[in-house]
Amino acid sequence: MTTPEQPAGNPALRTVEIKAFVPARDFDLSKRFYRDLGFEIPWSSDDLAYLHAGSASFLLQKFYSREHAGNFMMHLLVEDVGAWWQHVIAQGLPERYGVRADPPEDRPWAIRDFVLTDPTGVLWRIGQNISGAETAP
User: Fold this and answer.
1) Domains in the chain, please, with CATH?
2) Which of 21, 26, 57, 116 could bond 52 through an S-S bridge, CB–CB 3.0 to 4.6 Å?
3) What is the pTM of this model?
4) What is the pLDDT of residue 59?
5) 21 touches 7 (CB < 8 A)
6) At residue 80, does pLDDT exceed 90?
7) Contact 103, 97 (CB under 8 A)
C-alpha cells in the first residue's frame, strides 16, 4: 500500500513537507501582514523568513518580480473559514494594508473560501471543505 510518506515503488523516496517561496516586495511590511493574519515567524534573516500557522508553513522571501507576484497563488485549508474571515475583518487587514479581501463564498469544487491578497499582490484562497450536496447559500 502507498502512503503520502512513501511513494509507490521506492520506499527511500519518503517526503516530509513542501514549502512555497512567497515573494515580498516590502519584506518587513509583508512580515507584519502575515503576523497580523495569524502566522508565527519562528525564524527570519535579512531576506528569508519561515512562517507557519498550525501545520501549514511557507517561506517568505525578499524578492519581487511584478509578473511573478501577480501570478502567485496560495491555498490555505482551514477548519473554520468563518473564524478566519472574522479575524481578517477584526484585524482591519484590508484597510491597514490596502489589500483586497472578498468575503467567503461556496465554490462548485466543494470549498467555502475567501480571497485575500497580500501587500505584494500574492493571492490567497483561505477555505474549508464543504459537502457538495449541502452547500450553504
Assistant:
1) 21-129 (3.10.180.10)
2) 57
3) 0.87
4) 98
5) no
6) yes
7) no
Residue 18: all three cell numbers together: 513542501
What does the DSSP assignment read for the chain? --BTTB-TT-TT--------EEE-SSHHHHHHHHHHHT-EEEEE-SSEEEEEETTEEEEEES---HHHHHT-EEEEE-S-HHHHHHHHHHHTHHHHHT--EEEEEEETTTEEEEEEE-TT--EEEEEEE--TTS---
- What is the per-residue pLDDT across 6-63, written as a single tens digit (0 to 9) for each? 667 788 888 889 999 999 999 999 999 999 999 999 999 999 999 999 999 999 999 9
* CA angle at 63 for the pair 57 and 68, rounded to the nearest 5°: 85
* Cα angle value 89/93/95 (rounded, 5°): 100
User: Which has the closest alpha carbon to 121: 56, 77, 64?
Assistant: 64
Confidence of residue 109 (pLDDT cuts 50, 70, 90): very high
